[in-house]
Amino acid sequence: xxxxxxxxxxxxxxxxxxxxxxxxxxxxxxxxxxxxxxxxxxxxxxxxxxxxxxxxxxxxxxxxxxxxxxxxxxxxxxxxxxxxxxxxxxxxxxxxxxxxxxxxxxxxxxxxxxxxxxxxxxxxxxxxxxxxxxxxxxxxxxxxxxxxxxxxxxxxxxxxxxxxxxxxxxxxxxxxxxxxxxxxxxxxxxxxxxxxxxxxxxxxxxxxxxxxxxxxxxxxxxxxxxxxxxxxxxxxxxxxxxxxxxxxxxxxxxxxxxxxxxxxxxxxxxxxxxxxxxxxxxxxxxxxxxxxxxxxxxxxxxxxxxxxxxxxxxxxxxxxxxxxxxxxxxxxxxxxxxxxxxxxxxxxxxxxxxxxxxxxxxxxxxxxxxxxxxxxxxxxxxxxxxxxxxxxxxxxxxxxxxxxxxxxxxx
Length: 411
Fold this sequence. Notes:
Layout: H1 4-11, E1 16-17, H2 20-29, E2 33-38, H3 50-61, E3 65-70, H4 92-106, E4 118-121, H5 123-126, H6 131-137, H7 144-149, H8 151-159, H9 163-166, H10 168-183, E5 185-191, H11 195-209, E6 214-218, E7 231-232, E8 235-236, H12 246-254, H13 261-268, H14 273-280, H15 287-303, H16 305-318, E9 331-336, H17 337-342, H18 346-352, H19 359-367, E10 371-373, E11 376-378, E12 394-399, E13 403-410
Parallel strand pairs: 2-3, 2-5, 3-4, 5-6, 9-13
Antiparallel strand pairs: 1-6, 7-8, 10-11, 10-12, 12-13
């Protein structure tokens, strides 16, 4: 083993763990099977899933065996942890479709070849449960008073907690027991909002088998500027390129607060810690070198090196030193190829971008020398842009010195 516990601790993945001394010895010196669950309640993983995915990957690289649990069963109920209201119920067909997308995205982080990792779906054992037998054999081990003491349930008592959600902790604990019994899985990891669910699983295993299992949670990540982590103009920062393009994904990490650079390099890349420490020493404008490294490394993992190289080159073209002002707050507007090709005149583009409120205003902007496309100034009202010549299908429009709009053309 290559110090699995120490690696996680050094890179900032550990918030809480049970029996730290024993767990540290176990992860540093032995090979264990561990699991993390992902409920397919959406059609893509998002930035909030990155911490457990990287934690699993680091443990796998240290010699441990990941069990990825896709919650096809528990997704039919919904986890109340960290939620202020009941999840929308999804059809079984939608959950299955989401699960297939999750599996593809998770394989970017976890190596499933040669039985190095296992992927399971808890629908395989939850959907066929006999309710009365389950209550008698499993439900008897749970204390309602203790369940209500956990923060995830206490938060929901004021806004309303449905009976079906109240069962979630019991089912997740049962998942841990099944994996412990079938795969000798002795550790569950997850975000810190899962602490109550995970320790309940440990207690269930102890009560039924008399054996020890372990819990390890990671911190819930916040940005230094107080903004919600992974929030973009389109919503959450999803890993699906059809929802958030590789370019937008890359740009998000370019624009993080300086104070987050070292933390995010440790959490969201595989770069050696010593190299990260050196990058973190960069100050003022030079810190952008470290941010670009973060953006490239993470985009390569999520979207592939080819896509990362393309968006890196596009970003450097659009945001070269010739660009005046700041593009951090540039609005992104997405239009179809058909719409672009019917409105590819410079005047129409500035009107479409909403940088100009009317055609006449756009004509004045261009004729008076205030219109820039990809850092080039245009004054000819008849200029058009050919779709085939637009690199990475992205145009950066600037009106004057500081007003920007990024147009992304979609096929």
